[in-house]
Amino acid sequence: MTRALIVGGGVAGPVTAMALREAGIEAVVHEAYPTGADDIGAFLTIMHNGLDALRAIGAEQCVVDRSFAADGLDLYTGTGHLVSEARWHTDVTGPRTLRRSTLYRALHDEAARRGVQIRHGKRLVRAEHTADGVRATFEDGSRAEGDVLVGADGLRSVTRRILDPTAPEPRYTGLNVFYGYTEGLAPTTAPGRYHMITGSRAFFGHATAPDGRTWWFARVPGDELRGGSPGEWAEQASAAFADDDTPAAAIVRASGEIRGGNAYDVPSTPVWHDGRLVLVGDAAHAASPAAGQGASMALEDAVVLAMCLRDLPGPQAAFEVYERVRRARVEALVEISAGLGANRTADSYSFYRHHIEWNRPVDDPAGRVQGDRP
Ligand SMILES: Cc1cc2nc3c(=O)[nH]c(=O)nc-3n(C[C@H](O)[C@H](O)[C@H](O)COP(=O)(O)OP(=O)(O)OC[C@H]3O[C@@H](n4cnc5c(N)ncnc54)[C@H](O)[C@@H]3O)c2cc1C
């Protein structure tokens, strides 16, 4: 196998391309947006396991250079009582926080530096098998051919629907998500420390970035948002914490930049591949943001898929092993994240302890392969 078409230039797409290139397989990324996908004002955290996946292909530094470290997380109640403290490593293996747009840019730049071609303005609309591969058709009428097509096209994946027209739609989790960046306040946490607050009506998280600004998010139960203005989002988010004895409402009210959206998930996608097409990242399994693991799981997928294509005899065998290694882990995460979003306690820390050994061959499909959970 020599050539892969990647659809989607978010998190999983460029990393799959880089990993395939390391495995000696050419990959071209096709991204729908003209200049790379923009964010919706959100930031995210790449956890230990996501960085481990990047490290497997020597690509973690591009994220480390553009992010800030977190050394721990303190959990409070809505009455301001400290419930628990977690401390993480403070070296580069620890979680890193950055804006989504910065992450996309970092991965694009690193992929381009390694010679990966990223074609913008290429929105996949159709894909079909050919005699010895797959042909993709894009909205602008252009086409591309390859041995396999990797659908890294996110929550509302077209590739997922091509693989299985009856695939489930993303599910609204009942949570609105707000993000903001607040300046002019005294530091609200120690540098790089997250404070999380289980408020009486909603969940809040904040951290002080190196420039002194407070980066915050809120998950607020409510009807699905359809648009809205920054003023409306600020009103809704601050009202959710008005009855609590925490800094949340004041941080929201002082915020100069705020965005609102909704949290969705896709608990289980029945069909992940068909021998030529395969899904990675949110296209295969989208978790609600509560566990903060979606991007890290997408990074793991990307690297494991490339290893399977590198080591196994043909795409069908590779995709079967890839699914076997990945499905249980990612679906467990989706379930845990849904529970955390509903304020149930769950252990999401065990997901951090995951290691991918790039130089160890993937075993025979009949045997256990690395990354399998014992
Ligand atoms: C509010 C919020 C907060 C989050 N916080 C965290 C966090 O703290 N930590 C974490 O790990 N995860 C977090 N996540 C989840 C994380 O953002 C996703 O899991 C991750 O982005 C998935 O990567 P992906 O590459 O699969 O999809 P995406 O990053 O969504 O990328 C998909 C790409 O495909 C492109 N595309 C879509 N359709 C087509 C098409 N037809 N043709 C071509 N290209 C197409 C898109 O433009 C996009 O560039 C959060 C998610 C949300 C919504």
Class of secondary structure makeup: alpha/beta
Number of strands: 18
Spell the H/E element sequence: EHEEHHEEEEHEEEEEHEEEEHHEEHH
Can you tell me the CATH architecture of the largest domain? 3-Layer(bba) Sandwich
Q: How many strands, what sense, and barrel or not for the largest sheet?
A: 7 strands, mixed
Biggest sheet strand order reads: 6-5-14-15-16-13-17
> Helical segment tally?
9
- Residue stretches low in confidence (pLDDT < 50, at least 5 long) are none
Shape: globular
Strand content: 25-35%
What is the mean pLDDT?
91
For the record, the CATH class of the largest domain is Alpha Beta
Q: Could you give me the name of the CATH homologous superfamily of the largest domain?
A: FAD/NAD(P)-binding domain
Any ligands, ions or cofactors bound here, and which?
Answer: flavin-adenine dinucleotide
**Count of structural domains:** 2
